Amino acid sequence: DEWLRRQVHPILFKLIFRPSASCTGVGKKWTRPTGYDTGLKTYNSLTKQKEPLVLAQEGIATWYSCGPTVYDHAHLGHACSYVRFDIIQRILSRVFGINVIHVMVITDIDDKIIRRALEKSISPTILARMYEEEFKNDMLALKVLPPAVYLRVTENIPQIVAFIEGIIRNEHAYATKQGDVYFDIGSIGDRYGKLMGAGDAAGEPGDTEKRDSRDFALWKASKPQEPSWESPWGKGRPGWHIECSTIASSVFGSQLDIHSGGVDLAFPHHENEIAQCEAYHQCGQWGNYFLHSGHLHLKGSAEKMSKSLNNYITIKDFLESYSTNEFRMFCLLTKYRSAIDYSDASLNEARSSLATITAFTHDAQAYMRGQLQCQAVQEGALWERLAETKANVVRALADDFDTPRVVNAIMSLVSHGNRHLQGLLVLYGEWFTVTCCAFPAVFGAFLTYIREVFEVLGVDLLDRKPHSVDSSGTLENVVEQLARFRSDVRAFALSVEDMPGEPAHASPRPHSEKLPLLKACDTLRKDLASIGVHIRVSVCVGQWRLPKGGRVR
């Protein structure tokens, strides 16, 4: 296609343009692509079921996603969708070795942008650039990997005009006397409605010269106080849907592996994208897989988080109370295509899961440093459990990127490690940690694997906020010294001597004058626990003599 060769970026063209690649399919029926079978399965909105993920080229996935309409602050509903698809892209590239070539459009001209600019008495361009920059900073804060390229609508107007001309040449669009151009849905017959069904289509407001109420605008004639560009139909600007069809085609040609977006975009936006691309390229299947993320709901509400409903929380405000890691874990705990409830309880669950992993990490590292001395158990069982977990994680990721199963597998591994790492012993009213574990290497393998899995998913278990690096490191040392001092004092208080006249079989007891020291140690332990610092005293089984009546739990 000569137009595509002229418009596509030269470097991307050399990388991915495949002259032999062509869209396939007949009518509404989905056709399994020919090419490289990845061995993965993903839910395809075109078929409403899981399908084998087959890519046109081995080791490469072409991926287009709808970016933001930059007229306001991004909110958590947006963040949830972008983070979930970022997780999937990380899985494809870092687990299965697939090079994801991701392109995202920035909608920087739109009815909402024009209205907001008029309200603020600034130019639409300035408004759009301001919120575009904020969006990119939000994505950076959420550790969302940037696409290979962001492409703005306003910088692709000539390509959009040429694309519309191609659709008109193929007799799937028409211009009106007023200078509008509409897509002719009737011209493609029953092929319209691949995602939602033609029966779900509703007309958008428009010119009375439309041939069918369902026809949608490709080009809008200019109005007073609106930005406009020259075209064969007079001055105007692009319709909403045509921008994505044009830009995706200008980069990837007539075939696309994966298209993603929120489920609210399936109709009419993605439906109309499909119609436009297949009309332009004259084929039956342009995009092979459509992935849609579920809505984010406020707990107890059936409505999605949305600017139009004024029930949203901005990303910046959210990150003042929670960390990026906590939000990622929140997203990982549900399937990407499921609706997700936002509440303090659900976020606390994410925070608690991370805290459990952190506590296990500290205990395992303490053992590896030799701070916990104990008897060994069967090391082979731990290695077997680690191998089993690795296999389960890969299976879950290959099955529609099932992150809840992955998190469950990791938390089960942590729980298994904890059971081997520690038991609890009650002695003189104090909880002691009795450690029963294997050689240190297996716990090093546990920690390395857990850290690697979460790094793949975008969760950095070693992350510390930049502003608190020095203070948190100092605080950790202070707590460690305090715990050591308390341990020394308590050991002294618990030391016993044989008392004259006592029977030889009598249980040794600390001297009464030392009991206030024990009480002070217990009080310190409880006070520290109330602020999140938990002291565990390690005792080596076989080297500590239980008093008569002592209980092990």
Automatic annotation (TrEMBL):
Keyword Ligase assigned: yes
Gene Ontology molecular function: ATP binding; cysteine-tRNA ligase activity; metal ion binding
Record keyword Iron-sulfur present: no
Pfam families (UniProt xref): tRNA-synt_1e
Catalysed reactions, as listed in the record: tRNA(Cys) + L-cysteine + ATP = L-cysteinyl-tRNA(Cys) + AMP + diphosphate; 2 L-cysteine = S-sulfanyl-L-cysteine + L-alanine; S-disulfanyl-L-cysteine + tRNA(Cys) + ATP = (S)-disulfanyl-L-cysteinyl-tRNA(Cys) + AMP + diphosphate; S-sulfanyl-L-cysteine + tRNA(Cys) + ATP = (S)-sulfanyl-L-cysteinyl-tRNA(Cys) + AMP + diphosphate
Enzyme class: ligase
Cofactor(s) this protein cannot do without: Zn(2+)
EC number of this enzyme: 6.1.1.16
CDD domains associated with the record: CysRS_core (cd00672)
Highest taxon in the source lineage: Eukaryota
Gene3D superfamilies from the UniProt entry: Cysteine-tRNA ligase, C-terminal anti-codon recognition domain, HUPs
GO process annotations (BP): cysteinyl-tRNA aminoacylation
Domain tRNA synthetases class I catalytic: residue ranges: 57-351
Cellular component, GO, one term: cytoplasm
Protein family (similarity comment): Belongs to the class-I aminoacyl-tRNA synthetase family.
PANTHER family linked: CYSTEINE--TRNA LIGASE, MITOCHONDRIAL-RELATED, CYSTEINYL-TRNA SYNTHETASE
HAMAP family: Cys_tRNA_synth
Name of the protein in its database record: cysteine--tRNA ligase
Originating species: Salmo trutta
Lineage, broadest ranks: Eukaryota, Metazoa, Chordata, Craniata, Vertebrata
